[in-house]
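Proteins fold reproducibly. Next comes a concrete instance:

***
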Amino acid sequence: MDAARAKPFANLPASLKAEMNGAVAVLRLARPQKRNALNDETVLGVEQFFLGLPEAAKAVVIHGEGEHFSAGLDLSELTERNVAEGVEHSRMWHRVFERIEFGRVPAVAVLHGAVVGGGLELACACHIRIAEKSAYYALPEGRRGIFVGGGGSVRIPRLIGVARMQDMMLTGRTYSAEEGLAMGLSQYLVEQGAGLAKGMEIATKITENAPMTNFAVIHALPRIAESDAASGYMTESLVASIAQNEPEAKARLKDFLEKRAPKVVRE
């Protein structure tokens, strides 16, 4: 076994910490003195983390050290670039966050404190977002004379609509954790300090699904949702057929029919 496989998280920058907890890979943003602002080293480290996920990882949890999830782009490292260089830099962020959105396994973001700018873009690349009550959301780029560059103009309107995002960018408006839940920025809201435990609970539940189903949910479902109806129905039929033909799916269905599997109940 080579060193990379033996220690899949060994080459991460100091701004990131990672570990395995059962079948869940946990990634922690570890720049609390900078409110976990994202510099290039950290963003590229996120890519390295997802590229190096061990085979045992069936889900990912991302959270932030200290009082904030992430205050976004580290503006102290913003350098003057020509247009071509600026496009290339933005595309680097796109590439990294696509490793999350269309990665091998589902990703859960645990949010608290500032979820701002690039931090919100990072969170929206994940599939499930859990907010503690201290979380707040903002897109200050418009007030700073810049524009989102980490995929936010694509992902965020799909969650909250174009008009809300325009309001955030034009006016600097912030939204609370409660407002974020209502408008779709998160799917769960928990008490302060309870986010990581809830994230691990949900991620562990995800690891219990059939891998093919998880893969279909994160890869096929968003593409079907963006298709025309006829294409979506056809793709759905193909994915459903592939999923149900998996040996694990057949075994699970047999367990249900023979009353060995639990029924759906309200939790």
User: Anything to note?
Assistant: The mean pLDDT is 93. The chain has eleven helices and nine strands. Residues 3-207 form a domain with the 2-enoyl-CoA Hydratase; Chain A, domain 1 fold (CATH 3.90.226.10). The radius of gyration is 19 Å.
